[in-house]
Amino acid sequence: MLTYLPQLLPRCPNLRHLAIDADKHEGEDTELFALVERSCPRLHSFHYGNGLEEHHIPPLDTRNGTSVITEGTVATTTATATLHPRLRLKKLAYFPNVTHHVDHQLARLIEASSQTLETFRLSMLMRPATQTLSKLATLRAPQLQHLELLDAPCNKHVVGKVIRACPSIRWITLDSITDETFDALMHLDHLQRLEVSLDMEAVSVDKMHQFFASARSLRSVSLTAIDHFTDAHLETICARNKNIEILELGGCIAASISVKGLIHFSQHHADNVFQLTFTSTSVPMHDKVVALADMHNLRRLELRGHGCMDVGKDTVTTLFAQRRVSTTTTTTTTKLSVVLYRTRDEKPVVYTSDMSDDALDQVERKVQQPDILSKYSNMAWLGMLRET
Fold first, then answer.
1. Does some domain include residue 235?
2. What is the pTM of this model?
3. What residue numbers bound the domain in which 345 lies?
4. Which of 169, 175, 283, 382 is deepest in the core (most CB within 10 A)?
5. 294 and 325 in contact (C-beta within 8 Å)?
C-alpha cells in the first residue's frame, strides 16, 4: 500500500475524490478497500487503476469543502465532517494490474452506494465478480448512468439482471455479449453509447436487427468481433436506425465485411454517421475506403492498423472525387478528414477533402519517409501481429 495512506486518510474525513495509481500500490487491495470505507465517509468518487486518466479526476474545489488525493498530491480543507456510518459513492472504478480477491469488498461498497452510484467501472482480471454483480442486480441502482464490466467472468444471466436493474444507463461497455445480453439492453430507453465485444457464436443476425431497430436513443456504437462478422450483421446496424452518429468497428470486422456490404451501408447511413473508425485493420483497405463515398455527411474516417498501409493519396483523392460526384442538388458534402494510425506509436497521417494537390503531396512525402523510430515501431507491430 502507498505507505502514507494509513496515516493520511483518517486525517481527511471530508475527502470527496480519491484516485490511486495501481502501479504505486504494494499490498492487498482488500486492506485498501477497508481503509477507504473506514476513513472516508463522505467520499463521492473512488478510482483505483493502472495509470490514472485525467477525465476521471475531478478538479479541486475548495469552496465546497472538497478534498482530492491523486498520486500522492494532497489538498484538504479545514471544514468539519459530518460523519456517516457508511460512505455513499457516486463514482467507483476498479482496474487493478494484479489479481486480488476483492469481490466481497466491492459488494460492500455497492451495497452502501446502490442508491447514489452514477458510474461503475470494473475489471477483475478474470476473477469472478459474482457477489458484486448479484448485489447490484438485487439492490438496483436507479442513478447509474455509466456501467463498464471488463474481464469479469460471470453468468450472462446475472449481467442481464444488472442491466434490467439499472434503467438509467446511458453508456455501457461489456465483454463477449450474447443474444441474452441484447434482450436486456433493449430495456434501456436512455442508452446513448454502446461499447461491446461480440460472442459471434451466441449472437444472431435477427437479435442484432431487433436491438438496433429498437435503440432509438443510441448515438455512439463500438463493436468488436473476432470472427464470423458478415455483411448481414453490418446491415442490422443501418436497417432501421438512423440516429447513430459515431461508429467504431474493431477486431476482424474490417476484414470480414465486403466492399458491396460497405457500399450498402454507406447508402443507408449517408445522412447520419459523422465519424467512422475501423480498428485492427489487417487487410488492404483501398477499395473499402472508396466504397464509403456516398456518406456525404461523414466528417472523420479513422483507420487503425497495418491494413491501411495501402491507403494514401491515390485512395483519398479517389474517395474525395467520388463524394463530389455523388452530391446532388438536394445534398451537400461536408469536409472530410481521413486519419491513418498505421502503427501504435506513430503520429497519425491526416488528409482532408479541402487540401490542395500540393498539400496532399506534402502529406504523402511524409508518409513515404517516416522517421527511424516510426520504422522500428512499425516492424515491431507487424511482428507481433504475425505471432498472433
1. no
2. 0.84
3. 270-388
4. 169
5. no
